[in-house]
Specification:
Blueprint lengths: L6 H8 L5 H16 L7 H7 L14 H13 L4 H8 L10 H13 L1
């Protein structure tokens, strides 16, 4: 038993022969480890601090009035973390996005 590889080491070696379902489970574990890592904890604060550095674009079909209101709050520095989360859910991935946008997307995938 001493020369058996831990599950993740083994999966690294045989990833290409894993079923798609096994690959998805493995990738979700990796994504979870990244998203919940300490270095990412401050990304929402950073997103609020540098909000004005981005050219945010709304996803098609979102409430444009609400998007514009939140956009203005972000630019004026009066957006709170809950509003930031709401705003990130309204943003398209094809425009400029902060890392926090991708963290929110990853959290959504992990909840499924």
């Amino acid at each position: 038993m001493d020369n058996e590889l831990p599950l993740f080491d083994l999966a690294d070696h045989i990833y290409r022969v894993l079923s798609v379902q096994q690959q998805n489970v493995y990738l979700k574990h990796i994504l979870s480890a990244l998203v919940y890592s300490a270095p990412l904890d401050g990304e929402s604060s950073d997103a609020l601090e540098v909000f004005g550095d981005y050219q945010w674009e709304p996803r098609p079909g979102v409430d444009s009035g609400l998007f514009d209101d939140l956009l203005e709050k972000g630019h004026s520095g009066s957006m709170d973390p809950g509003q930031l989360d709401q705003f990130m859910d309204m943003v398209t991935a094809t425009g400029q996005v902060h890392l926090y946008f991708w963290i929110r997307k990853a959290l959504g995938v992990l909840k499924e």
